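> Could you send the Tr-type G domain-containing protein prediction when you get a chance?

Sure thing. Input:
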Amino acid sequence: MDSSFFDLFGPSPPSGSSSDSDLRNGNDDDGSNEGIDSFGQLLHRPDSSNELVQKGIDFNRGFLPPEPQLGNIEYKLKLINPSKQRFEHLVTQMKWRLREGNGEAIYEIGVSDSGHLHGLNDADMTVSLQTLNQMARKLDASTSILRRKSLADHRSVVEVLVRKIPDDQHNIEVRVAVLGGADAGKSTLLGVLTQGEFDNGRGLARLNMFRHMHEIQTGRTSCISHETLGFDAEGSVINYKYNEMMTAEEISDRSTKLVTFMDLAGHRRYLKTTVQALSGYCPHHALIVIAAGNISNMTREHLAIIHALDISFSIIVTKIDLAPPEPILFELKNLLTSIGYRKVPYLISNQDDVLNANAHQSVEQIVPIFCVSNVTGAGLDLLIQYLYVLSPGISNAEKERLEQQPIEFQIDEIFRVSEVGTVAGGLLCKGVLTENSQVKVGPLQDGSFFSVTVQTIHRNKAPCRVVRAGQSASLSFNTVEPMPLLRSGMVILPDYETNDVACGCFFFQAQVSVLFHATRIFKGFQTTVHIGSIRQTAIIEGIMGAGDTGIGTNQSASVLFRFVRHPEYVRPGMRILFREGTSKGIGKVTQVFPLKQPLNSIG
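Output:
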């Protein structure tokens, strides 16, 4: 069988044998995956669409790509008895790699900077791993071996995950959106992952995911549901099955890594809610769930939106216990390699595939594909391993830069809680927000903001005292005057912001590109606009430079929008997604016209 060119540690074991990663995890090959393995050749085979990926990777000669200068991957030929000065330099280097990976770094031991797999004998490898552990302990980080590759002459290469939880956090958090058409098995998959119990084939696992009675009755998700899956330092799963009295707060406290799932609606009726969640909560990654059979139009719509928002994604093919996955995999290959996506589908069939796909997903446009069954549990162990090594994709340096800016909390959901009052849920895009902070919330109908005090903060269904940039939370407030009616799309800003900054607008200008429109877009076109957590109908009041011809598919222009119902807080640089039926477009805000500014100055 031909080997995947993504298998950077050499060819896959011959048919009938097991890799040492499979043996280490007790995954003896009993032939049950024979169909998937043989079909994997199709998804892995090099062709003209992925020559760029193939370039520079020569697995037959034992090469990795040259060591990247940026990012969280580090190559070390050996780490044997370094001098004190050299050791301090290595620790500083590890600290930088951890910052690049938001607390996670991958070390390849026995590999030169050029990517050649030299390997080390057992004695040198033992000493090198001991040195690596000493370096990690210096930074209060932990290490765990991901895989070991044996080479000739009793030499080996080892891949090690180094993880350090930031000093101001309990764990490393990754936000994952779960999408797909209705009846694909999204809620059932999350129920199995977070509850630790397989489904009975009749939807038992999904019941804990639903929030409303009509969802239980119809079996369809209509709103955003948040669930968590934790991992300890050794990679063991921490979920509600960990012990009988497990709570969401205990899962968060016990975990060194926390995956927060957003279970989104799959029915077209709730598409606006799904798009708002993707735009407002800014997930680090997305899982597209597809039932074995065919790719629905709604799934294609979700894929297009994810691609437009530039969110990395993986694909989960479910219900393989009911139908063979081969037809859907053929269809996925044709879709993902088309001109609109230019992605490289990569079927995951063993642990090496998981680690290779994770390491090269962002650089080489790889889309990992998992085939799973929520009833038999087939393929779930590989998906869990993938979630364990999945990185947030934002460096600590960028995170620190965002934390130093004034707070901006985008409100996505509003609740009324007895004896507490109004509670606002959403995402903190910038800054650091603490209890008892004096803030402004708005804009109100006249574009102004209302001063309030943050009373309590909850994250992951547990109280906390501080929330940082990139984290989602729920806030309650304390006010002297009656609280105005809050709505989704409002923002929370520092109380010291002047009215020049804390002000809403009806008009804004954006540089947009039309992804698809059946004819052409002209002045007066009405569309639903998504900007962060904002979701409102807007009218195009002008298209610069288009004249009477308008703009069509794959064309760009500077466009003046006007919100229809109420003012919103918009600032230059924010990403915009607009849609109306099958029409879609993306862009960035370039100019804002606050309400206090005379309308005759626009344009």
